[in-house]
Amino acid sequence: MKKVLVAYAPIGDAFDELKQKYEVKMPEEGIWGYDDIYALIPEYDALLSDFSMKVDARMMDHAPRLKIISNYAVGFNNIDVAYAMQKGIAVANTPDPVIEPTAELAFGLMLDAARRITECDRKLHDKSLVWGPFNDMGVNLYGKTLGIIGMGRIGQAVARRAVAFGMKVVYHNRRKLPQTIEAKYGATYLPLDELYAVADFVSLNAPLTDETYHLIDAHAFSLMKKNCILVNTARGPEVDEKALAEALRTKRILGAGLDVYEYEPQISEGLLSLPNVVLTPHKGTATMEGRIAMAKYAAQNIMSFFEGKPFARVN
User: Fold this and answer.
1) How far from the centroid of its chain's Cα atoms is residue 198's Cα?
2) Residues contacting 144, CB < 8 A, separation 6+
3) DSSP structure class, residue 2
4) Residue 31, number of CB atoms within 10 A of its CB
5) Which of 116, 161, 282, 291 is catalytic?
6) Angle between the N-to-C axes of helices 99-115 and 153-164, in degrees from 0 to 180, rounded to the nearest 10
7) Per the CB 3.0–4.6 Å rule, which of 43, 81, 150, 237 could disulfide with 206?
8) Is 65 labeled as catalytic in the residue annotation?
9) Average pLDDT in the 62-87 region?
10) Contact call for residues 1 and 7 (beta carbons, < 8 A)
């Protein structure tokens, strides 16, 4: 019987079928760390990894039986995919279940930063709010331009919500989308510098690659409108965090909503000390429905691999 190592405790009934078909080991609660997985991995044929855990060359060299890594995330920058390819190890992700929860959070951060919801909430709690019709004013979403960087499935889910809010959508992507897809959202393709110049909101939804590392830097902020709000639910290193903190501190841009960070889980003091940034702890998919669906999808990848069926392979 094949042996499957799962990095985190069961979520609902997500692993029931996996346990019926294979010998499965997982923690009773929480998530195993790197050292725990490293100690166990030599005896296992499959690893269901968590996005917070590195699966590097050292780990794979210590796993002679390993045939597949199914990552509990749409992103897979925690895995040395190129080395897995060399070792003949398949790598899979969970693209479908993350779309709607991540788009919801992106839009929630956009609304929060625009209407200063968290800022006002803090002031009410610590009794520092000064009531008045012209105090703590935010900005509308209606009638504004949203620039989406990365118009894949999550980017398009954000665009769908933007259209419902009466926003204009512009986007930048590796490739221009077919006209039929652009027409669904009334979306216009723009080069990056042009997008920065016209967008009132910028939503970052691109995967982390060599090309997207520090995609938004001091130069990008210098091109943005002073009333621009940046939202990042993609990957932290796509934004130069030092440049972002400076842009927020000097009011070069109006605000930001962040779910991911350059040196996660550490967050720079430059951001923590600012009132015009809303922060969440990498919770893009953190709904009960979303997390259970992701776990089932990750488990199904492993079952499909061993059964010779199609699965969400990334290498």
Assistant:
1) 24
2) 167, 168, 200, 201
3) -
4) 16
5) 282
6) 50
7) 150
8) no
9) 95
10) no
Name the CATH superfamily, with its identifier, for domain 99-279: NAD(P)-binding Rossmann-like Domain (3.40.50.720)
d(CA 206, CA 235): 8
Residue 175: both structure tokens together: 């490739």
Distances (CA, A) of 53 to 34, 71, 72, 80: 6, 10, 10, 11
Distance CA 183, CA 14 (A): 38
CA dihedral 130→132→135→138, nearest 10 degrees, is 120
Is there a catalytic annotation at residue 235?
Answer: yes
Taking only the tens place, the pLDDT of each residue in 248-274 is 999 999 999 999 999 999 999 899 999
Model confidence at 275, pLDDT cuts 50, 70, 90, reads very high
Q: Which architecture does CATH list for 3-97+287-306? A: 3-Layer(aba) Sandwich (3.40)
Question: Which helix (DSSP H) or strand (DSSP E) does residue 256 occupy?
Answer: strand 255-258
Report how far residue 290's alpha carbon sits from residue 247's, in angstroms, rounded to the nearest whole number. 33
DSSP SS3 for 172: strand
Question: pLDDT per residue over 98-131, tens digit each?
Answer: 999 999 999 999 999 999 999 999 999 999 989 9
- pLDDT one-digit tens code per residue, 10-25: 888 999 999 999 999 9
255: phi then psi, degrees, rounded to nearest 5: -170, 180
Amino acid identity, position 19: K
Question: Hey, where are the domains in the chain?
Answer: 3-97+287-306, 99-279
Active-site residue flag, 175: no
Please tell me which residue in 116, 161, 172, 235 is annotated as part of the active site.
235
Question: Of the residues 43, 194, 246, 264, which is catalytic?
Answer: 264
d(CA 231, CA 273): 18
